[in-house]
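Q: Please design a sequence for this.
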């Protein structure tokens, strides 16, 4: 898997025009309620999550689960972006069972990671 610091550095270069980013347009147009439970699957090193999703989670007293297949990415994100309203954990939805049986999510994000799924169904 990628080196988190190197990945984060190059990812930052690709999101310089962040206000024009499709993720910004998506999140700015969403309706948010208080106390939502949100999932970000494929959070990687956490930069995109913390720029676009965490501020909305914080503003609405919500909680965010950040999941990535890479232990290195999760450890890096947890160190760089610690937050009491965010839980980081390793998970692989492609090859394993959903790591949150019985859990309901108000919003689910999968940003820049659908290309990793061998079968979109």
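A: Design:
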């Amino acid at each position: 898997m990628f080196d988190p610091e190197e990945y984060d550095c190059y990812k930052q270069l690709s999101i310089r025009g962040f206000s024009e980013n499709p993720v910004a347009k998506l999140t700015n147009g969403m309706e948010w309620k208080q106390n939502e439970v949100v999932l970000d699957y494929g959070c990687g090193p956490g930069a995109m999550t913390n720029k676009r999703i965490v501020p909305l989670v914080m503003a609405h007293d919500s909680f965010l689960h950040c999941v990535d297949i890479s232990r290195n990415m999760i450890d890096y994100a947890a160190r760089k972006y610690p937050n009491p309203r965010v839980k980081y954990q390793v998970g692989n939805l492609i090859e394993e069972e959903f790591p949150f049986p019985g859990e309901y999510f108000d919003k689910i994000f999968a940003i820049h990671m659908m290309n990793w799924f061998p079968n979109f169904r």
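Q: Thanks. Anything notable?
A: The chain is about 35% helix and 15% strand. Residues 4-27+35-116 form a domain with the Rossmann fold fold (CATH 3.40.50.150).
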